[in-house]
């Protein structure tokens, strides 16, 4: 694991960004934000339950004059393991309370109940061979994942959350996952955006155990929802702090309109399933071909394409029908 970003960075009065290492090759770091709150701390996101991350977090809290026992509460933006599982691990030792968006309940139920059947979607998307390979991966991580996950203490709904020193607006922003929430501190002009708005990458859409019907439609609505608030300093879960939530939301909305156009053009050129369409599109900022992606990213890319196709159906530009277990799209 190569990681070069240890430290504690004050990003606003009483708010510190703590980057923690991740084992993936794509995302190097997840940011935990430590908020001064009375004589303790509230943490937004927790990191992935890994020894290297725990050591880095303990060192960072130590630099702030605190230990794990001073963390009063974890406010977690979504159920993905790089955000949620360290909170569960620390709760077992310190009893720290964990809050998670109420919309994550169906996905957490599936994880805890060992009903990880997301690979079935791949057959619907026209990629049964990917489904077989992906099932093996899901089953191999299944037991470890089960150990890392437990229910939160509190399910978050849209509300104003009064901490000792500040009020955080809890805003459900479904899309990246169905129960994703962001936290706004409007008085201090801060948006703790989780993975909803990231400065350098476009978050994956609907990669979760209980995928909703129209994850990209939800995501675009959630981007517009955040755009309706004042322009705020962006404190993302991956990447650096940047100055304008509006500027990045506008870029993300434009990006997805471009992708929708490219997706529609691919169907016009004769593709039928999400898998066939994904193979015609460029991927990542470097425009790699689908074949160049590893299995995990092929699965993401296929699901991403299905999300775009379903929005095009919702907009009346495509129609869909099920043919031999797979959804096939055609121009209306
Ligand atoms: Zn993440």
From TrEMBL:
User: From the Swiss-Prot or TrEMBL record, what is one GO molecular function term?
Assistant: hydrolase activity
Organism's domain of life?
Bacteria
Q: Where is the Metallo-beta-lactamase domain positioned along the sequence?
A: 29-238
UniProt keyword terms in alphabetical order: Hydrolase
Q: What name does the UniProt record give this protein? A: Glyoxylase-like metal-dependent hydrolase (Beta-lactamase superfamily II)
Species in which this protein is naturally found: Saccharothrix carnea
């Amino acid at each position: 694991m190569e990681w070069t970003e240890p430290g504690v960075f004050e990003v606003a009065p009483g708010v510190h960004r703590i980057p923690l290492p991740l084992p993936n090759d794509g995302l190097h770091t997840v940011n935990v934000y430590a908020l001064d709150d009375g004589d303790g701390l509230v943490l937004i996101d927790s990191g992935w339950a890994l020894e290297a991350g725990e050591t880095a977090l303990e060192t960072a809290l130590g630099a702030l004059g605190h230990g794990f026992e001073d963390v009063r509460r974890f406010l977690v933006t979504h159920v993905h393991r790089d955000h949620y599982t360290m909170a569960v691990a620390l709760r077992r030792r310190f009893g720290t309370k964990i809050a998670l968006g109420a919309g994550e309940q169906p996905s957490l139920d599936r994880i805890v109940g060992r009903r990880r059947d997301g690979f079935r979607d791949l057959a619907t998307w026209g990629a049964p061979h990917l489904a077989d390979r992906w099932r093996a991966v899901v089953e191999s991580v299944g037991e470890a994942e089960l150990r890392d996950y437990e229910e939160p203490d509190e399910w978050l709904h849209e509300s104003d959350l009064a901490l000792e020193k500040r009020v955080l607006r809890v805003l459900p922003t479904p899309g990246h996952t169905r129960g994703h929430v962001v936290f706004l501190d409007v008085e201090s002009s801060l948006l703790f955006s989780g993975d909803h708005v990231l400065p350098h990458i476009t978050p994956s859409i609907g990669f979760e155990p209980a995928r909703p019907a129209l994850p990209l439609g939800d995501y675009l609505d959630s981007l517009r929802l955040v755009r309706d608030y004042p322009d705020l300093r962006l404190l993302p879960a991956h990447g650096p702090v940047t100055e304008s939530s509006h500027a990045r939301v506008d870029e993300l909305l434009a990006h997805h309109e471009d992708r929708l156009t490219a997706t529609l053009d691919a169907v016009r050129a004769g593709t039928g399933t999400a898998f066939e369409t994904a193979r015609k599109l460029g991927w990542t900022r470097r425009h790699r071909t689908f074949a160049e992606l590893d299995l995990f990213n092929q699965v993401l890319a296929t699901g991403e394409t299905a999300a775009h196709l379903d929005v095009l159906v919702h907009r009346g530009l495509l129609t869909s029908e099920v043919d031999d277990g797979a959804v096939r799209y055609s121009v209306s």
